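Data deposition worksheet. Section B asks for the primary sequence of the deposited chain exactly as it was used as input, without tags or linkers unless they were present during the calculation. Section C holds the resulting structure in token form. Section D is free text for depositor observations; keep each observation to a single sentence. Incomplete worksheets are returned to the depositor.
Section A, Depositor: J.P.
Section B:
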Amino acid sequence: MVKLGIIADSHRSMRNIREALGKMADCALILHLGDHDTDMDDFRLPENRLLSVPGNCDPLSFAPHNRIFEKEGVRVFMTHGDAYGVKYTLTRLSFKAREAGAKLALYGHSHVQALDEDGGIVFLNPGALKNGDYAVVTLDEGKITCELKNLAEA
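Section C:
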């Protein structure tokens, strides 16, 4: 079993990042889905604990815009989402996730938390960390459990 902490759209909200990292202390991996992905530099997480992709507010980033990895038998596709029009529809993201063989597609950009499932793929948007939104995903031998959270929760 592995827990993933998912954040996106931090937009220099350093206090929210610090608080979210505290709440995700038991997460083996922190995933930042863009828009100020360099915010994480200030927290000096080990390279093996942080994966990020740039967003539309990260024009100087040389990092790949999409990442694919596998944990606990689940292939994960992560992107910011702007290149796939996620503010309007998940169709293009769905095609890309299927092409990648993903069972979990993570995206941001819209600043709105969302959890959907379509054709065996779970689509998760943690919302905007600048608004206190984040998510925790547990992967366990192919099973995916998602929790949408907000820093204001107890």
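Section D:
DSSP finds two helices and ten strands in the chain.
The chain has a mean pLDDT of 94.
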